[in-house]
Design brief:
The chain is mainly alpha-helical. It is built from 13 helices and two strands; from the N terminus they run H-H-H-H-H-H-H-H-H-H-E-E-H-H-H. Strands 1-2 form a two-stranded antiparallel sheet. A hairpin with a 4-residue loop joins strand 1 and strand 2. The model has no long low-confidence stretch (mean pLDDT 97). The structure holds benzoyl coenzyme A (BYC). The site of benzoyl coenzyme A has 28 residues, from helix 2, helix 6 and helix 9.
Length: 313
């Protein structure tokens, strides 16, 4: 009888661009890599609710408040799809939440910067969601089925978020001189942290090689960063704003913009927990978790009651 080598089967699926599904055999390192990335991604969505959530009560109109409320709620939903995708790899929700709440887990560096004005809400939608989409469109073709499918839905919602942010930036940039100043100030503060979202330069990215080999990522950190800059530089110009980078210039030869790197020491410091808001974000998440205890207890009690009733029927 012919014996099937599971590793060969896995490699053959990747070569044929087929998805790997939860019940398929997979190398242990592939599983660990995905748990790391998907759980960090989920945490980013959940912590990412905080900077914008901070402006829900101060949105400048009822329309703006409704849209922002829906956006922040969407981010919560994204976190839940992603935790579920990670659970399909054998880690529990409790383990992931524990890692987040004790500060052991990473989440996107971008959410450790403060939202000082309403223009920051615009800059987050425009730049931060714009960068997230650039990355996530690629992840829709990731090799792990549940991750890839979660990305399809998330990308649809993120496009709406990006337009919400760009609309705010348009209103401010073409508004009064004070409003335009607010928009410029937000761009100045969010530009480089947004570039950091794509991760360290390729030469300093320990996870990229395996991620590309296993088709978890289809493009590298630098490739996506460059594409984001090419797209966004034109929007900056349209808004009549100026990017805080005097080296940002179209380069005919490479058919892309030249740009200055962010301060990678600042990036390292933020992901080590020393950003402006790291401590505050962790405290907020811990408080929410504690305050939500009664909801979790009530949900479990309700589930048990329903189970008993269906058994009795
Ligand atoms: N922040 O080898 P590398 C959103 C870490 S939220 C923090 O290049 P990789 C939204 C990296 O984890 C969307 N840490 O890693 C929500 C690694 O550390 P470990 C967030 C970072 O995985 C609310 C080390 O640095 N999107 O849309 O190949 C409101 C070396 O990096 C960061 C995702 O999570 C960072 N920026 O590439 C609005 C996308 N960058 O784990 C919007 C999914 C790197 O070895 N994730 N690190 O200890 C990815 O695509 C990849 O994980 C990354 C990094 C591109 C982020």
């Amino acid at each position: 009888m012919e014996t099937i080598n599971l590793e060969d089967l896995f490699e053959a699926k990747l070569a044929k661009n087929e998805m790997i599904e939860p019940k398929d055999w997979m190398p242990e390192n592939y599983r660990k890599h995905l748990i790391r990335q998907i759980s960090q991604h989920a945490h980013s969505e959940i912590v990412g609710m905080l900077p914008e959530g901070n402006w829900i009560t101060r949105a400048p109109s009822l329309r703006a408040k409704l849209i922002l409320l829906a956006k922040v709620q969407d981010e919560g939903g994204h976190g839940l799809y992603l935790y579920t995708a990670a659970e399909s790899l054998g880690i529990t929700r409790e383990e992931m939440l524990d890692a987040l709440l004790t500060g052991k887990a990473k989440y996107s560096s971008i959410f450790n910067y403060p939202t000082l004005s309403w223009a920051d809400v615009g800059a987050i939608g425009w730049l931060v969601d714009g960068a997230a989409i650039m990355n996530q469109v690629m992840l829709q073709r990731s090799s792990y089925g549940p991750y890839s499918r979660a990305m399809v839905r998330i990308c649809k919602e993120e496009s709406f978020h990006q337009r919400q942010g760009y609309e705010i930036m348009t209103q401010l940039s073409f508004g009064t001189s004070e409003q335009k100043e607010m928009a410029q100030d937000a761009l100045n503060r969010w530009w480089y942290p947004t570039l950091m979202m794509f991760g360290p330069p390729d030469v300093e990215s320990p996870n990229s090689e395996n991620a590309i080999k296993w088709r978890i990522k289809r493009e590298t950190n630098d490739q996506l960063r460059q594409r984001f800059i090419n797209q966004t530089a034109i929007q900056v110009e349209y808004l009549g704003l100026v990017a805080p980078d005097k080296n940002l210039k179209w380069n005919e030869k490479k058919q892309g913009y030249d740009y200055s790197d962010p301060d990678w020491n600042e990036f390292k410091s933020v992901i080590k927990g020393n950003g402006i808001c790291n401590k505050d974000r962790l405290l907020s998440r811990n408080n929410s978790h504690k305050n939500g205890e009664w909801v979790r207890e009530a949900a479990i009690a309700f589930g048990k009651k329903q189970e008993q009733e269906s058994k009795a029927a």
